[in-house]
Amino acid sequence: MLNDTTLAVVGCQWGDEGKGKISDFLAGQVDVVVRYNGGPNAGHTIVVENETFKLHHLPCGVLYPGKINILGNGMVLDALTLEDELAGLKRRGIIVQKLFISDRAHLILPYHRRQDSLEEEKRGSAKIGTTLRGIGPAYQDKIARRGIRAGELRDAQRLKEKIAAFLSEKNELFARYYSAETMTMPEIEEGYLPAAYRLLPYIADTALLLAGHLERGEKVLFEGAQGAMLDIDYGTYPYVTSSGTMTGSVCSGAGIPPGKVGTILGVGKAYTTRVGAGPFPTEIEGKTAEYIRERGREFGTTTGRPRRIGWLDGVALRQACRLNGVQHLALTLFDVLGGVGSIKIATAYRCRDGSVTEHFPADQHILEEITPIYREFAGWDEDISRCGNINDLPRAALDYIKGVEETAGAPVSLLSVGPRRDQTIWRL
Ligand code: GDP
Ligand code: IMO
Ligand code: MG
């Protein structure tokens, strides 16, 4: 799989597919790991032997000595959270040395977090269920050309003036539109900027660095955050995140040309979860959902919220594979399905007018009215979490994998049967 110089790992559902686990599993074979989208809305859980790490900004390469880790320009960064993350690792004996932050990455400022909460409150029953990390407002400001980029930390005086001007605009918004408390400059200057300035030694033109690594033939892994169905364009808009989450964003978010994206690995759970509000055609409730939630420990890494549970949505997965150009699928949390009884994959949707579609509709109102058409598979009761070889799997599990491949239109080349590195099976 790593014959190519670069490998992109992308989520093919609504996030939390196990991208962290799969990226970490593969990162041993690369020199550089790059995050190119999102920010601390991401929560990537990685289990190394008996230790569990939860990464939000940092690429999984930080868990290996000597790897180069890059936070690309497509990310939005919260200096306070990032500092906490680095400190948390340090407490556990991991000193992150080779870290580079793009001077073009945007900063999440304290007013972005406040704005995120106020926007959510205002939405009332149409709440998106964001992570409240300030992601949406930071990307809004980036697009509106009033963002603050990491490189601007190099000129403290100019930065202060800029933030003061933006803050007065935000305060008008907070006070007039939301009738909420305003924020003071000292809150930002004392509570936030010192942490941001401590990031200065890491700040660089990371696209230039990356070009050098690629020229020298070094291997690079692009660790995606979120998933295809949370993509700003192709996700279940408006119940999405505020950035591109697919392979296309590797180029714009890391600063490499399209021809440099080598292997594309999509990650999908053996079922589906979603955290936050919005359409979820294959959602299930009741005993089976509870069983999967408990067995898969389906509680948000970032917010601790219980994740919504559903059957594998083949329609969504097929779209994700097509749009991302997925060449290999990593099917994760496969062990969780043991003992669940018969298992379903949605292969098409029946619309309200009786018509059938195999494609994911753009309109959320249509999505709310469709009924999935399922293909049913026999389940298995064996514990497969110790299987080290594909041939050790029960017949029913192999049939299910075949069903996933047929529905998704991509081969399952990696199978994950547990959170640890050694619970991963190659199937090439
Ligand atoms: P990410 O955001 O895509 O990196 O995924 P998360 O880390 O948010 O959620 C995936 C969860 O499943 C984490 O708790 C992982 O430790 C866990 N996990 C990953 N792969 C497997 C697997 O194959 N089996 C089980 N049981 N857990 C897994
Ligand atoms: P990883 O990388 C799952 C969801 C939020 C919400 C929506 C918008 O761990 O897969 P935002 O805070 O981004 O404005 O929230 O997107 N969301 C995620 N769900 N995994 C993630 O990241 C997510 N990042 C954002 O729950 O529904
Ligand atoms: Mg996650």
Q: Which class of secondary structure composition applies to the elements?
A: alpha/beta
The unreliable regions are none
- Rounded mean pLDDT is 97
Radius of gyration: 21 Å
CATH class of the largest domain: Alpha Beta
The CATH architecture term of the largest domain is Alpha-Beta Complex
For the biggest sheet, the summary is: 10 strands, mixed
The outline comes out as: globular
β-strand number: 21
* Count of alpha and pi helical runs: 13
How many domains in all?
2
Distance between the termini: 8 Å
CATH topology of the largest domain: Adenylosuccinate Synthetase, Chain A, domain 3
Tell me the CATH superfamily of the largest domain.
Adenylosuccinate Synthetase, subunit A, domain 3
Helicity range = 25-40%
The percentage of residues in β strands lies in 15-25%
Which distinct ligands sit in these coordinates? Answer: guanosine-5'-diphosphate, 6-O-phosphoryl inosine monophosphate, magnesium ion
Question: What does it look like?
Answer:
- The protein is α/β, with parallel strands linked by helices and 428 residues long.
- The chain has 2 domains: 6-98 and 205-426, Adenylosuccinate Synthetase, subunit A, domain 3 (Adenylosuccinate Synthetase, Chain A, domain 3, Alpha-Beta Complex); 106-202, Adenylosuccinate Synthetase, subunit A, domain 2.
- The protein has 13 helices and 21 strands.
- It has helices spanning 19-27, 79-91, 110-123, 135-143, 156-177, 185-191, 193-197, 206-215, 248-254, 287-295, 314-324, 364-369, 395-408; strands at 6-11, 32-35, 44-48, 51-55, 68-71, 76-77, 99-102, 106-107, 203-204, 220-223, 263-269, 272-274, 283-284, 308-310, 312-313, 328-332, 343-350, 356-357, 371-377, 412-416, 424-426.
- It has a 10-stranded mixed beta sheet, sandwiched between helices.
- A hairpin with a 2-residue loop joins strand 3 (44-48) and strand 4.
- Helix 3 (110-123) crosses helix 4 (135-143).
- The longest helix has 22 residues, at 156-177.
- It is globular, with a radius of gyration of 21 Å.
- The N and C termini lie close together (8 Å).
- The model has no long low-confidence stretch (mean pLDDT 97).
- Bound molecules: guanosine-5'-diphosphate, 6-O-phosphoryl inosine monophosphate and magnesium ion.
